[in-house]
Write a structure and sequence with these properties.
Order of helices and strands: EEEHEEHEEEHHHEHHHEEEHEHEHEHEH
Structural class: alpha/beta
Strand content: 15-25%
Strand order of the largest sheet: 9-10-13-14-15-16
Number of helices: 13
Distance between the termini: 52 Å
Shape: globular
Radius of gyration: 23 Å
């Protein structure tokens, strides 16, 4: 028998549940929730845990496991932390094994999440945000965000200590300025605000610019050699905004971010999905050291990218995750790797890798990709036709 407490520290509400599991049977014992309202988070969590324990007639020593999610990672006494989308997905499967989707309506934004039969998640799709005005932005509790750099530093210090002697680690801790500017308010509201409330948009962008630079400091202090900057700026047909407007809104901020990374001795990678041909030169002008994912299903061809910016940025990715790394034969995987190396490998400056990740990517096919890289990727290049 296991008695556990789950604590979800949300942007506006703390939820706590106490339950008991014995064999295949689970039993809810007590639950509690309260709005934070600028009160001390740790104090509220302690109050919530005492409440559910008292309700069930149990003591703290009776608890076998304390699980946290949301912003609860740094709570004292926690046994394990789970990311919010993971808890949504696993909870949905637990309650209804036939569930294949979850809708999360949070204090900041709403999102829809695809899940498979095992509770693995696909990419969340944000329907709309809840920051509709400067007043909403001012009222939103930013305390969890201000604590983020401390958590990032701790996590990457552990990751670097465990794997840094074997892997070159690109640290990722938050999304880019474009995504964090439009997603909290929804895209339609964002583009209207760009035209009519430019000062408000610039304030949002500057807030996240400052945050990103602070997070770079946190990762550099942890010893991480490189960082990922991810901002999905394009559809499969091209940029979501005109390149001129993208530069007008984000150019100075991007340049400050890359300059900060370089001053810290780090490399920084730009990840932007979609067809980014019209933005590649601009990425290089902004100072990014590498570009990813070069999505083949968006028409991105390695040979063309290499010709355009191969002498200015490292090229990463382009191995397809719609078929090649999902259900292709070994011969098809080897052929895709061979093609990629033939197009982008000569002269160096190419890192082979998937263009994305999702639950259907096959571990076996990733191993085939690595095996093929070992065969075809050593210099002088051997691009023999036999897999």
């Amino acid at each position: 028998m296991t008695v556990s407490i789950g604590v979800d520290v949300g942007s506006g509400v703390i939820k706590t549940a106490l339950f008991r599991v014995e064999g295949e049977k689970s039993e809810w014992l007590s639950r509690w929730d309260a709005r934070i309202r600028q009160r001390n988070t740790f104090t509220l969590v302690e109050e919530s845990m005492k409440s559910v324990l008292d309700s069930a007639g149990l003591a703290r020593d009776d608890i076998d496991y304390v699980a946290t999610t949301g912003e609860g990672e740094s709570l004292p006494g926690a046994t394990g932390h789970f990311y919010s989308m993971t808890t949504h997905a696993r909870g949905a499967i637990f309650l209804n094994p036939e569930a294949r989707g979850v809708v999360d309506i949070g204090a900041l934004n709403g999102r829809a999440i695809y899940i498979d039969e095992r509770g693995n998640i696909g990419n969340p799709i944000y329907r709309e945000g809840l920051i509709k005005s400067p007043a909403d932005w001012k009222a939103w509790d930013k305390g969890p965000i201000f604590r983020h750099p401390v958590k990032v530093n701790k996590v990457f210090a552990d990751v670097q200590a465990e794997y840094g002697d074997r892997l070159y680690i690109f640290g990722f801790s938050n999304y880019g300025l474009f995504e964090t500017a439009w997603q909290p308010m929804g895209f339609e509201r964002f583009v209207v605000a760009v035209r009519r409330e430019r000062d408000f948009i610039r304030r949002l962008i500057r807030f996240y610019e400052d945050l990103f630079c602070e997070l770079l400091e946190a990762k550099a202090d942890a010893g991480v050699p490189a960082a990922v900057y991810t901002d999905d700026l394009a559809y499969k047909s091209g940029p979501m905004l005109s390149p001129r407007l993208i530069d007008e809104l984000f150019g100075d901020s991007y340049r400050r971010i890359t300059e900060t990374a370089h001053a810290l001795g780090m490399k920084i990678l730009m990840h932007s999905c979609g067809n980014t041909y019209s933005l590649l030169e601009w990425f290089a002008d902004c100072g990014f050291d590498a570009v990813h994912p070069l999505e083949p299903t968006a028409g991105m061809e390695l040979a063309k990218v290499k010709e355009m910016v191969g002498d200015r940025m490292c090229i990463i990715g382009n191995i397809d995750v719609s078929h090649i790394l999902v259900d292709a034969t070994k011969e098809e995987v080897f052929a895709a790797v061979r093609r990629a190396i033939r197009e982008a490998g000569p002269g160096g400056g190419y890192i082979l890798g998937p263009d994305h990740s999702h639950p259907r990517v096959s571990v076996e096919r990733l191993r085939w990709m690595v095996e093929a890289a070992g065969r075809y990727g050593s210099y002088p290049l051997d691009l023999g036709e036999q897999a």
